[in-house]
Amino acid sequence: MKTTERHHLKDNELAIALGHAQDWTGRNARTLLGVIGAVVVIGAGFLGVTAWRNSGNNDARAALAAAMVIDEARVMPPAPPAGTTNDPNALGGQLPGTYPTEQAKLEAALPKFQAAADAFPTHEAGLTARYHVARTLVSLGRFDDAVAAYDRVIAGGNTLLARSARLGKGEAQLRAAQYEPAIATFKQIVDQKDAALPTEAVLMELARAYRLAGRTEEARKTLTQIVEQHADTPYAGDARSELEKLGKA
Q: Which phi-psi region, left, alpha or beta, contains residue 177 (left: φ > 0; alpha: ψ -120 to 50)?
């Protein structure tokens, strides 16, 4: 076949293809417009969700920051009433941004952390606020509430926060004299073999829980494990001291 004939056929094929495309577009104009419209709506929806998430993250961080301002505030007694000192410029009373006692500061911070956690339960800042709720509850001596809050952090899906929350939960259980639950919590952490947590540190807490529970032999075995398997860590010395105390008990 000659070259000119090949070009002629190609031109005809292109014309036929364009014709078919125009015919299809004419017959399916409404469908085509609908598809285009759907793509536009989906794109707009994606952008809207992204903007909403960013807005939610910003709001969550702002709520957490407001609570942290209180949590990190200074504790100092109120100044003498104005006019009762030799300093004429002294304002007297509680200085703004300070609290008279640690208890007062914790009680002021707790509802702020709680509000941030409840408003943004799935955001990282909201989960962080929940962790601070639990930590504050421990400081206020509300151990059962603290354990429940720690459990919610653990279930929240943030690995780093969950790791800290498990340790905090065990500590709360110990302080509440819930020794058997604390032993279960610390054993679970050890069994998980989390490389980010020093096993010897968790074993020390487990040994302490055993000792407080009156399970002296298990405490001794756990301390011996630290000495034998983690001899090059600072906890080995602490474990030896604890073993000496148990030997004298």
A: left
Q: What is the 3-state secondary structure (H, E, C) of 83-94?
A: CCCCCCCCCCEC
Q: Give CA angle at 138 (202, 145), nearest 5°.
A: 105
Other beta carbons less than 10 A from residue 22's beta carbon: 10
Q: Which residue has the tokens 């410029």?
A: 89
Specify the pairing of strand 74-75 against strand 98-99: parallel
pLDDT per residue rounded down to tens, the chain (249 residues): 444 444 443 444 444 444 444 554 454 444 444 443 444 444 444 444 333 344 557 898 999 999 999 999 999 888 777 656 666 666 667 888 899 999 999 999 999 999 999 999 989 999 999 999 999 999 999 999 999 999 999 999 888 899 999 999 999 999 999 999 999 999 999 998 887 888 999 999 999 999 999 999 999 999 999 999 999 999 999 999 999 988 865
What residues does each domain of the chain span?
177-249
Which option is the CATH number for 177-249: 1.25.40.10, 3.40.50.720, 1.10.10.10, 1.10.10.60?
1.25.40.10
pTM for this one? 0.72
